[in-house]
Design a protein that fits this description.
Layout (H helix, E strand, L loop, with lengths): L4 E5 L5 H11 L4 E5 L2 H13 L4 E5 L5 H15 L2 E6 L14 H22 L7 E9 L10 H21 L3 E9 L12 H13 L8 E4 L1
Parallel strand pairs: 1-2, 1-4, 2-3, 4-5, 5-6, 6-7
């Protein structure tokens, strides 16, 4: 049976690209979403050269209308999706007493509101009403940092949203999970290499339904 597409939002040179590669090599057509059109085109071309199916969609996750339109366009071009991965994030240092209101709002727009828009858009498009909605969380949701306040608040908010969505979708054929990454992606610990993390996302998508969970604590 032909696999449905995987929509990967937030594709850059680290985890985002590894996610696109993992799902493409598993047989899913992949749609790559991000702001850097040239970089996305390069990644899609490389995957296509391997015999995979990939397309690039340049969009800002902070633009709700643009993100919704891009996701629907990908569904039109690839057919009904099977997987959504929301990996977009802004990670700027800031403190509780020095937050700039506009920058804080923009961070939340990328890190949280974009995830809400993506989920709301993709849910009714899922192939046969079944599939996986996977979100990249972070350990700052559990242990906030005063040096990365907006990121901490964002990850806590995203975690709450995804767990709420998971509860709403229980009993359906939609697997909703956040991957709470408790380490530095691409750092010295090989467990947190982008490829190994991407394999964990793919494994979540392939889990039997009786093993579905609201959160994977990846530590």
């Amino acid at each position: 049976m032909t696999k449905g597409s995987a929509l990967i939002i937030g594709v850059g040179p680290g985890l985002g690209l590894a996610l696109a590669e993992a799902f493409a090599r598993d047989g899913h057509p992949v749609a790559l979403f991000g702001r850097d059109a040239a970089r996305l085109d390069k990644y899609a071309s490389e995957l296509n050269a391997e015999g995979r199916t990939a397309r690039a969609y340049s969009v800002d996750a902070a633009d709700p209308e643009g993100l919704e339109a891009a996701l629907k366009r990908a569904a039109d071009e690839f057919g009904s999706p099977e997987v959504l991965v929301y990996n977009a994030a802004l990670m700027s240092p800031d403190t509780p007493t020095e937050l700039d209101a506009r920058e804080f709002a923009h961070t939340l727009a990328v890190n949280v509101t974009g995830a809400v828009v993506a989920a709301r858009t993709v849910l009714p498009l899922l192939r046969d009403g079944r599939g996986s909605l996977l979100f990249t969380g972070g350990g700052l949701a559990l242990d906030p940092s005063p040096e990365y306040t907006s990121l901490s608040v964002s990850k806590a908010s995203l975690r709450a949203y995804v767990q709420s969505l998971h509860k709403q979708q229980q009993g359906s054929d939609v697997h909703v999970t956040t991957v709470t990454v408790g380490g530095s992606i691409g750092g010295d610990n090989p467990r947190f290499s982008p490829d190994k993390l991407a394999a964990a996302y793919l494994n979540l998508h392939q889990q039997p339904q009786d093993e579905w969970q609201a959160e994977l604590l990846y530590t």
